Amino acid sequence: MNRTVIAEMTWKQAQERMKEARAVILPLGSLEQHGYHMSVNTDNIVGEYMGRVLAERTDSVVLPVVPYGQVWSAKDFPATISLRERTFIEVVKDIVTSLENKGVRNVILFSSHWGNTAPVKIAARELLDEKGYRNVYYLSYMDLKRLGEGIMETELWNGSGFHAGEIETSIVLHIKPESVDMEKAVCEYPKAPGDVDIRPIPWITFCESGIFGDATKATAEKGKKFLENWIDTLVGLIETNIC
Amino acid sequence: MNRTVIAEMTWKQAQERMKEARAVILPLGSLEQHGYHMSVNTDNIVGEYMGRVLAERTDSVVLPVVPYGQVWSAKDFPATISLRERTFIEVVKDIVTSLENKGVRNVILFSSHWGNTAPVKIAARELLDEKGYRNVYYLSYMDLKRLGEGIMETELWNGSGFHAGEIETSIVLHIKPESVDMEKAVCEYPKAPGDVDIRPIPWITFCESGIFGDATKATAEKGKKFLENWIDTLVGLIETNIC
Amino acid sequence: MNRTVIAEMTWKQAQERMKEARAVILPLGSLEQHGYHMSVNTDNIVGEYMGRVLAERTDSVVLPVVPYGQVWSAKDFPATISLRERTFIEVVKDIVTSLENKGVRNVILFSSHWGNTAPVKIAARELLDEKGYRNVYYLSYMDLKRLGEGIMETELWNGSGFHAGEIETSIVLHIKPESVDMEKAVCEYPKAPGDVDIRPIPWITFCESGIFGDATKATAEKGKKFLENWIDTLVGLIETNIC
Amino acid sequence: MNRTVIAEMTWKQAQERMKEARAVILPLGSLEQHGYHMSVNTDNIVGEYMGRVLAERTDSVVLPVVPYGQVWSAKDFPATISLRERTFIEVVKDIVTSLENKGVRNVILFSSHWGNTAPVKIAARELLDEKGYRNVYYLSYMDLKRLGEGIMETELWNGSGFHAGEIETSIVLHIKPESVDMEKAVCEYPKAPGDVDIRPIPWITFCESGIFGDATKATAEKGKKFLENWIDTLVGLIETNIC
Amino acid sequence: MNRTVIAEMTWKQAQERMKEARAVILPLGSLEQHGYHMSVNTDNIVGEYMGRVLAERTDSVVLPVVPYGQVWSAKDFPATISLRERTFIEVVKDIVTSLENKGVRNVILFSSHWGNTAPVKIAARELLDEKGYRNVYYLSYMDLKRLGEGIMETELWNGSGFHAGEIETSIVLHIKPESVDMEKAVCEYPKAPGDVDIRPIPWITFCESGIFGDATKATAEKGKKFLENWIDTLVGLIETNIC
Amino acid sequence: MNRTVIAEMTWKQAQERMKEARAVILPLGSLEQHGYHMSVNTDNIVGEYMGRVLAERTDSVVLPVVPYGQVWSAKDFPATISLRERTFIEVVKDIVTSLENKGVRNVILFSSHWGNTAPVKIAARELLDEKGYRNVYYLSYMDLKRLGEGIMETELWNGSGFHAGEIETSIVLHIKPESVDMEKAVCEYPKAPGDVDIRPIPWITFCESGIFGDATKATAEKGKKFLENWIDTLVGLIETNIC
Q1: Quick check: E199 and D240 CB within 8 A?
Q2: CA D84 to CA E56: how far, in whole Å?
Q3: Euclidean distance between CA atoms B100 and B94, whole angstroms
């Protein structure tokens, strides 16, 4: 019996494992453009990988990735699907409620897509306020700069943007290289309009490739190192705080 | 370039394919108990398989499965997740709206989980009434009895129930045998309370294994034949009506 | 004192009767086209009649018919009113909640209009999930074919459609003949488009009279017999399961 | 062909009449306690009567009464059903929308139950704001004191309350005497708590019979005269303003 | 320490005062046109003043005015902001809920804007039904005619309208004269269309100045007297009923 | 005529000014604990001040502050009011919609309370998606560290927290010293639980004074300098991007 992946268990096996496991991890991805060189499934690939690794490392179990997320900024790109804020929050709340009714110890909402992090937090607050659930946690990229220090060579876009750039490309080169075509990788630091931080502006109006950064500098090796840092950080957070 | 599976495309590739493709297929599955012998991921396995095959056969493309559905009846079983009716409807509407904004020709909502079929129909009606979308279709098991005629040996439960029984088990034995453990397969025709059709009654109160039928009679061969019938029927419906 | 019809009682009389009665029956009808020969009030006529008879036969009481229902398919015909799915569900939930707060024993939601049956079921599920009401039942036409066996001469449309045809017309000829004009009765088996089962298609686009079947074959005698079968079946269900 | 009551028409007949009629009248009643001497159906009886008479007098047509209304104040009495404010508003909006889509000239919302008047006004405002409907009117008791001047002998409760008292009882004695039992009529001017106008207080906490006034003084003759005034007033309003 | 105005307290000071105070008063105003001669802030000026005075007189405390209200009728005038009915209700409910969670004795919702009174009542009812709060009160202008008897010289518009006329102008002349410019005061008794009471009609279509009455007759002295009556009446209501 | 503050204008004056003004500024504050030494009105004081100054500096006009905000983290402190996320979003959307209907050039949503910034952004996105408004901007503290560089002496809490500490206290010492009592100012760098960033944790569970930082180091002079930086930055953003 697989001790980690709920999708590979029968309900009897899952019943046993979910009760004893430290946490049930729900990866939250998205179908979103990731430049000319990576598949639109990138966030789901990362979510599935991270969910599985975190589960293995912390004696937890992992649910299937929610493959559609809140993707407002990129929503006008082809093959990019966005759930409205409220829809996404209700999805998260319904899934957690289904779990809580059956006595799991903790629930970890892991966002591999950045746009999910704000609504996930609202969902966790509402679950606390409305139902009293105190065992719902949210994790995501946390402190990107620190995680990539000494590994990544290129700047973040505008100090924080990284979509489909060196970091994400390196990660996928390590965990699923066949879904990256480095020949199509480009470097784009989109010149954003001056009001980009004070008005809702869809990316498609000022970004050509969909990349925010330099994907050409990505390597599987960098991805491997970044992942080690990232996983260690998250495992540390989980082991210290969630039991 | 993969010409069928959007998750394996970049946005540029998807853009081209989605415009020329007959339809974009959205498989709608669920995480739901499927007896002692099959994984809770069964509906997603079937949804992914069927979505891909239908896309290949009808010059369409397929999106990632929505892996959480409306699972009211089985929702009290472990590892079974249910979205509320309204949440599920909004998910479907948001995904379709994201597609329609970008000029796809048709959208096919394919439910591999029975509980999704009623809310999917409501979603399609609301998309027509509220947004005028006339190109949204829904497909599912259609006429099970006819599809299984001459292939399946055992009765449907109460004349129509088939959950995790001969049909579904045979299908999965054919398309993903490693997620079935036939040694644990049982036959259960649950004795339902007399008011099962006139009151909402969760399955868990009267069904032990989660099966409605005889899973022990399943074979990969039966699954293969059933699938041929099913796929031919759906392909026929699509080719005749959707262009 | 009338012992059956709440609308004919004072609140004092109703108070006494509702507590001792087996159930409170709420008929759910609609204002909907019923061909050239029957009034748009047909479902309400049947709902009122059936509600009263079932109440008499099972020591229950009956509320006034809700005369507007979910009528999506026929909604574009003149004098046909449709409540949206969610509106109709909330109406049913509010009425049941008003009753439950006052200690009735059971509530029976009786749909004389087919389009009400799906939302009624959702309402009952939500009342159970949200408020814990376990005494809410739903009844409707149940198994039409069996009920009409040996009585009705003509085929159902597409194997299941019967709107304003032989069955309904016969029923109304028996219970309220003045609201049928048999001289205007016609036979129409509308030729539906091939995608009628896989897409939301309003009836008005393919049905001329509004009838699905052969109304010309209707007789009061057939209606009487059908009603006997139907009522006996429902009374049996109620007596066996609801107390 | 009946030229007034839609419930007695086929859709073909209604189609013709609704287009030429001045207005479609929708009576809005309620199932609500009306003292020891009148049926809980009183508001629906009045609504149906008034709807029919107003239609006859103004070349309009009338729909079936909505028999469940917003009845917050009396909602704790037995056999009294209350829809929540929002539910009731949505019902009215859905019905009007169904009508507007088919080219009626005007819609008149006639409340025979006082509690409906506030939400009806909100519904009309929202239909104007959201859909641009400018032909939706609302009528009700209007100026009770003036209408009853020289006819009614007893005081209104607290200057405006009249529930189940002299006025309503007289009306029903005229239009449907069999649903009044004058032997049970009482006079009750409930002593309300001092904060009755500054806090939501259910009637049941301070009113014994459910009556606010003196029902014993009611006569059919008074009802007839009051109705003449009321109808003339409303007909005048309609003829002057709605065409 | 200020013993009345919460906005001038720290949380520690407020904590102590809110527990011992008779009530927490929440003034509900609006930003709404008030003729050529008064600022659009008029309702907020009155709300703030009255809230403070009532708090002082009844050993209560007062919150900041909610400066945006339900202003449907005047919403098309410049600088007039209207919250939708449901939005306004939710604001009131959220604020009251935040207070109730911390053990205040009573909450008084004081509307200085007439359009707020209906939704405030609904909010109070819902807070009672949904949360069981029995200590939520609503106050407003109460009986204008009686309050102004012997003080005001001019007629109310249509028997009840007073917007920006003699009464309101006099009040503001007394409490904040610098926000009135009597040179611009006019007398307007708008000639309303005949259907003004039976259809939603925005004021802007039939009222030029925004005034309903005669502002030119206003004096600070009249305002002072009216306020004395009004405050005494409200203080009486509070002292008698709220403790 | 005041050319900046709408609350001090009549509707005629506002009409003229709103059309020619660069933008209408809506300050969004909150009633929230601000330590032992500052009033709970702090965010509203800052909002009103900043709104007025920004309006003066950019030829804009300013609306009254919305004095209740989304205050989840601090909501359990006395005299702290929190609107739910969705309520706050609807308030913002309704106010903006009321403005847009009357032809203003731009709308600036200025949050003086940090918790408002996330829902304000959602509101702006929904206004763009649902109504097509492209002229809605949001401003707030922007880059605190840069603004306070060389002015503030103490560390931000956890690298970013500043609630009621050196910065806010200095600001209020400058603009409204009477609402600060420096004798009660304390220094508190609350020791947060390890899971403070991965779970919704109300401040009250780990912060005693309500302060995150060192309020004792605040001076009016620092406030003046910080405000100069802040205002210059915002004015620059407005002049460059909004016209």
Answers
A1: no
A2: 37
A3: 10
What are the pLDDT tens digits along chain F (243 aa)? 579 999 999 999 999 999 999 999 999 999 999 999 999 999 999 999 999 999 999 999 999 999 999 999 999 999 999 999 999 999 999 999 999 988 899 999 999 999 999 999 999 999 999 999 999 999 999 889 999 999 999 999 998 899 999 999 999 999 999 999 999 999 999 999 999 999 999 999 999 999 999 999 999 999 999 999 999 999 999 999 999
Question: Which range marks the domain in which residue B151 is found?
Answer: 6-241
Closest residue by Cα to residue E73 from D110, F97, D131, D125 = D125
Which tens digits make up the pLDDT trace of A176-204? 999 999 999 999 999 999 999 999 999 99
**ipTM above 0.95 for this complex:** yes
What is the total count of domains within chain F?
1
Q: Say if residues E60 and E97 touch (Cβ distance below 8 Å).
A: no
Residue E135 CB partners (closer than 8 Å, separation 6+): E100, E104, E105, E106, E107
- A1 within domain boundaries: no
Neighbours of chain C (3+ CB pairs under 8 A): B, D
Q: Which helix (H) or strand (E) holds B110?
A: strand B107-111
Phi-psi region at D145: left, alpha or beta (left = phi > 0; alpha = psi -120 to 50): alpha
Q: Which of D70, D122, D129, D238 should one mutate to test binding to chain E, selecting the residue with the greatest count of E CBs within 10 A?
A: D122
Q: Of chain B residues 78-107, which have a CB less than 8 A from chain A?
A: 78-84, 86-87, 90-91, 94-95, 98-99, 101-102
pTM: 0.97
- What pairing do the DSSP bridges indicate for beta strands E213-214 and F24-28? unpaired
b/e code E189-228 from CB counts within 10 Å (16+ = b): bbebeeebbbbbbbbbeebebbbbbbbbbbbbebbebbbe
Structure tokens at F134: 């492209």
Q: Which residue of A has its CA nearest to B103?
A: A78
Contacts of D95 in chain C (CB under 8 A): 68, 81, 83
Provide the CATH number for the domain around residue D156: 3.40.50.10310
Contact: C9, D40; criterion CB under 8 Å: yes
Out of B137, B197, B198, closest to residue C198 by CB? B137
**Cβ atoms E34, E118 nearer than 8 A:** no
Per the CB < 8 A criterion, the answer to whether F123 and F86 are in contact is no
The partner residue sitting opposite F200, judged by closest CB among A121, A139, A194, is A121
E205 Cβ contact list (under 8 Å, min separation 6): E193
In a domain, E1, yes or no: no
Residues of C (208-237) whose Cβ lies below 8 Å from B:
237
Nearest-neighbour CA in chain E from D200: distance (Å): 6
Answer whether residue D126 is part of any domain. yes
In a domain, E134, yes or no: yes
Per-residue pLDDT reduced to its tens digit, E152-189: 999 999 988 999 999 999 999 999 999 999 999 999 99
> How far apart are the C-alpha atoms of A46 and A65, rounded to whole Å?
10
Query: Could F8 and E41 be called an inter-chain contact, meaning their C-beta atoms sit closer than 8 Å?
Result: yes
Comparing CB atoms, the residue among E125, E139, E142 nearest residue D200 is E125
D91/C91 Cβ within 8 A: yes
- With contact defined as 3+ CB pairs under 8 Å, the chains touching F are A, E
Instruction: Please check the confidence at residue A127 and state whether its pLDDT lies above 90.
Output: yes
Q: Are B164 and B212 in contact (CB under 8 A)?
A: yes
Which of A11, A38, A87 minimises the CB distance to B94? Answer: A87
Helix axes C42-57, C220-241, angle to 10 degrees: 50
C-alpha to C-alpha distance for C203 and C75, rounded to whole angstroms: 8
D85/E122 CB distance under 8 A: yes
Residues E204, E210, E216: CA angle, nearest 5 degrees: 155
If you ran DSSP here, which 8-state letter would residue A206 be given? T
